[in-house]
């Protein structure tokens, strides 16, 4: 499902910040639409990491290719994705630690 409203990508922005801006614009539970994960945290102090399935879902929702999102949002690049699981998932982490499940 493509989202009815979009926000512009900001090069180098954290994934958490991008999703936070989307959620604020849409006033709905954006992460619930993307899969299973942990409680949202303040993107100023944390980052959200996605697995490949959640990245694919986000790409559809915002109408951009996964590669476009990966160029603009560094923590969506392949070496930062969570391990694949049974479905779309995300995990919030404090600081800039490498993502892992």
- Largest sheet properties: 2 strands, antiparallel
Helix content: 25-40%
Give the termini distance in whole angstroms.
Answer: 27 Å
**What number of structural domains do the residues give?**
1
Rounded to the nearest angstrom, the radius of gyration is 12 Å
Strand content: 5-15%
Strand adjacency order, main sheet: 1-2
Number of H/I helices: 4
Global mean pLDDT? 79
Shape: globular
> Structural class, judged by helices and strands?
alpha+beta
Strands, total number? 2
What letter string, H or E per element, gives the SSE order?
Answer: HHEHHE
In the predicted model, the low-confidence regions spanning at least 5 consecutive residues are none
Question: TL;DR?
Answer:
Helix content is 35%, strand content 10%.
Would you mind describing this structure in some detail?
The chain has 101 residues and is of the alpha+beta class. The chain has one domain. The chain contains four helices and two strands. The protein has helices spanning 15-26, 30-34, 52-62, 66-72, and strands at residues 46-50, 90-94. Strands 1-2 form a two-stranded antiparallel sheet. The longest helix has 12 residues, at 15-26. The termini are far apart. Residues 77-101 are annotated as: Disordered.
